[in-house]
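Handoff note, outgoing to incoming analyst
You'll be picking up this chain. Sequence as last confirmed:
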Amino acid sequence: METHTHVYILVAFLLGTKGLLLNLNQTQGPSMFERLNALEKQLADEKRQRYLLQVEYSEEKERIAELRHLQDTMNETNQKLLQDYNSDPKRFQDISTQIRGALLSIYNLDSKHNLDIQKVLDALRDVQTSLTDITSNQSDIFQLQRHFREKQNVLSNMLDAVKRNQTTNKEKIKSLRASLVSLANSQKNLQSTVNSTSNKQTSLNTQFNKIQRSNVAFVAELSHDVVNPQDRYHIIFDNVKLNIGENYSANNGVFTAPYPGIYHFALELTSPPQSSDHTLHVQIIKNSVSVAVTFLDSNTQQYLRRTGSIILELDTSDLVWCQTDHPFDSNTLTSGNTYSMFSGFIIHPL
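Most recent structure output, in case you need it:
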């Protein structure tokens, strides 16, 4: 706006001096008036060129605004990419590097456009400064005309350079937009990969937990004979041979279920020959309730070996142990050499 005002003042000044120049024409000839008319026409052409340049400059500013909006959109996209960075650091670092390169290219193009426009505006200011120095001296007018022609040539060359740069920049921006679309597609593919990897990780964790819960087993035997036990005597198999998961206690002979599941328990008992008839029952107890029983009765001639087993569904912290039931007369449970053993393991966690 300030540039237009200066031009209007200059044109008014020239029109005001037109009468003075007409007087000069009476002594210097009609060629002076024709030159002044030519100069006025040239100034009008210059004004029109400046107007066209301003229009082109406004269009360029709109393009730059679009580029800046695109840059903001890219910044938002870059923030989303950074949120998923930990999922695949190296791949996201490569994408971030490409995006920063694209943003830097756009910024450089923006700076170059601004520099070209600034050069044109500087040239226009030089023209305005030159116009203010116009006097009625004919030699000054001729010099000004030459100066105008030189400036016109400079401005024409600069405008041609700006147009060439605009064409090149449009192609670069088109290429950058295509690259950004490709990067966005790559981001979607990476997100799909991350989601798939996360699902696989969840599945693996579930399988690992099931495998981990399957690692429960124990085997224990008597380290010393149990002689003439009383009724409801709690048998402690204190010599532990296997205790995966550490869920069987050699101190009290109790197995504690670590997880809900289906468990198998087995009891192997050996009794030496006795001098008279006898009775001995050994129960497997679940939470104080008998769930299985093994009989060692009436053995007077040889060693007696009995086995018993059961499959139980247990909840977490359920207890399983062995105890005697209704012993009669003399009874002995033989220890050592796997004669009397208590064992168990998990079949399937629930």
